[in-house]
Amino acid sequence: MAAFVVLLSFSAWGCGGSGDGEGSKVAAQPATAPPATSTDIPTTATPTTTPATTPAATTPAATTPTATTGVPAPGTATTTTGEDQPGGAGDEEAIRTPAAFTVGGQGFTPARITVAAFLPVDVALTARAGGYRVTVDAPGGGTVDVAPGATTHVRLGGLKAGDYAITTTSGRATLHVVAGGDPGP
Known about the structure:
Elements: H1 2-14, E1 97-104, E2 107-109, E3 112-116, E4 121-127, E5 132-137, E6 142-146, E7 151-156, E8 162-168, E9 171-178
């Protein structure tokens, strides 16, 4: 008879019960929502032993905005960036495409430079020897004097596709503006 009681105890134990006939019942526990700051969303509810009420310490406190002067409080660590340095914000130069021509007794080198349409162009004119009066025939261009051995820059706004002449008494060059394509000499 003792063997029968031991066998009965093991069979009740193997079914997950406690021997009191309630082995198949599982206590339901409330599921909790993930914290408001969590980016992980669980796919199954995880049982927890915490109370169902949320402690007051976990609710965000209301903050009052404070006015600042832009000057850090004494003893506050600060970080310096390029924007805070001399010249600071707004001193950046806009993108522009360089087009460098050299002018001499035989004309211009190179004779043609291709640039992209609608981007500003920085036309650099360098005189080899002797001074030259150069005309840039493009919107925003004009006539400039280039001193011997010096470089003069003519900055043009974005140009429409087409060919624009750069001339002097000794020759002619072309600023070839294309919509798309590869810029270069």
